[in-house]
Design goal:
The chain is α+β, with helices and mostly antiparallel strands. It is built from five helices and four strands. Strands 3-1-2-4 form a four-stranded mixed beta sheet. Helix 2 links the parallel strand 1 and strand 2. It starts with about 25 loop residues before the first helix and ends with a strand. The relative contact order is 0.24.
Length: about 130
């Protein structure tokens, strides 16, 4: 039996949007914790292996990824590609990515990051 888990149909896409968290009992600490994880992008993956900032996810974006993404994932993917290609070394947070996508809830941005990793568009994200 053959199963595929990295399909859009297998992901909880509703959690990629602010509306997916309506009615959730989130404390201010939960939201702040979701904003804080630092994401590090390197234009050279060899540099990413040698530099270590504690508590960070070292993200590598597959700039040749060509499979289907949801509209929200596509928007985030384009932001991540520009971060990776735009500088030798870039550090951002999930909260800043959420704002860049027009999301109020950083948990929605975190879910998009998780899904991009499951789909193989990025690697290195530690949820």
């Amino acid at each position: 039996m053959y199963t595929t888990s990295n399909n859009l149909e297998n992901l909880e896409l509703y959690l990629e949007h602010d509306s997916g968290y309506v009615g959730w009992e989130l404390t201010p600490e939960d939201i702040e914790e979701a904003r804080m994880p630092k994401l590090v992008f390197h234009s050279d993956s060899a540099d990413a292996e040698s530099a270590v900032l504690e508590g960070c996810s070292y993200i590598s974006v597959d700039i040749n990824y060509c499979l289907n993404l949801s509209p929200g994932q596509q928007k985030l993917y384009e932001i991540l590609v520009s971060l990776q290609e735009g500088a030798v070394f870039t550090v951002t947070t999930v909260g800043k990515l959420a704002k860049a996508m027009g999301l109020d809830n950083p948990l929605a941005a975190g879910k998009r990051l998780e899904h991009l990793q499951v789909l193989g568009a990025i690697s290195g994200f530690k949820p």
